[in-house]
Amino acid sequence: MAEIAIREAWDKLPGESRQSFHGFSTYRDLGPTRSLAQVATALGKSATAIEKMSAKYDWVARAEAFDWHRDQIRQQEIERLEREAVDQQRALGQALRITSMQRLVGRRAGMSGDGRPLEEITALDPNDLNAQDVARLAVEGVRIERLAMGMPTDVSKAIDTFTLREVRDLVETIVEAALERMPEAEHEGYVRFVREIGQTRSNGRH
After folding, report:
1. 12 three-class SS
2. What's the CA gap between 16 and 26, in Å, rounded?
């Protein structure tokens, strides 16, 4: 069976002359800021003649339908691009998470599910971490753990959950534990680094 074409409001109407449709097409394609005066100037016609054609074939309503149609297409394209971006970001996040976990706990050599050889990955040795590495891992670890539990990851948003005293005690506990596990020569640099983080966070909130 032959396909039946669906005629839209902005297509040529039955009985509409080529001259009139050309005038409407010019009006339609001018965009939301269109005017009949612009069409008259573009086609070298009188304003009266253009106004008569517009009224007879309902140019304004047809152009508005065309604008709505184009806007729907734009919105659908934006939504498609947003979905693609979310999918790509999710895939990237998963890849980074898997890679970081493998680096932390290591991986034996073997074969992947699709038959590709997998090289051995040596687990990260905590003794190789310097003071700044320990501080960053502590901060990021707390953030990820709180995120997994559905808790605020920004200290400024955690006041409803913890008092300022509790937050300060938690930070002091983390710092003291880190100092006990690192050489004394690195203590001063670590404490200075933690203080710089606190100052940066404080300035960012103001």
Report:
1. coil
2. 15
What type of residue sits at position 151?
M
Tell me, what DSSP letter sits at residue 156?
A: G
Residue 159 lies in a domain: yes
Condensed to tens digits (0 to 9), the pLDDT of residues 89-143 reads: 888 888 878 888 887 788 888 777 787 887 888 887 877 878 787 777 777 877 7
Angle at which helices 187-205 and 131-148 cross, to 10°: 50
Domain count, the chain: 1
Full domain range(s) for residue 195 = 126-205
Q: Which residues of 171-188 are buried (b: 16+ CB within 10 A; e: fewer)?
A: beebbeebbeebeeebee
Residue 60 lies in a domain: no
In degrees and rounded to multiples of 5, residue 164 shows phi and psi of: -60, -35
For tokens 């394209």, name the residue: 77
Is the pTM of the predicted complex or chain greater than 0.85? Answer: no
Cα 29 from Cα 39, distance rounded (Å): 10
Those residues with Cβ within 8 angstroms of residue 128's Cβ, 6 or more apart along the chain or in another chain:
none
Half-sphere exposure at residue 147, Cβ-oriented, CA atoms within 13 angstroms: 8
Q: Which helix or strand (DSSP H or E) is residue 111 part of?
A: strand 110-111
User: Does any domain span residue 168?
Assistant: yes
Candidates 46, 85, 39; CA nearest to 63 is: 39
Output the six-digit token pair for 92.
């990237």
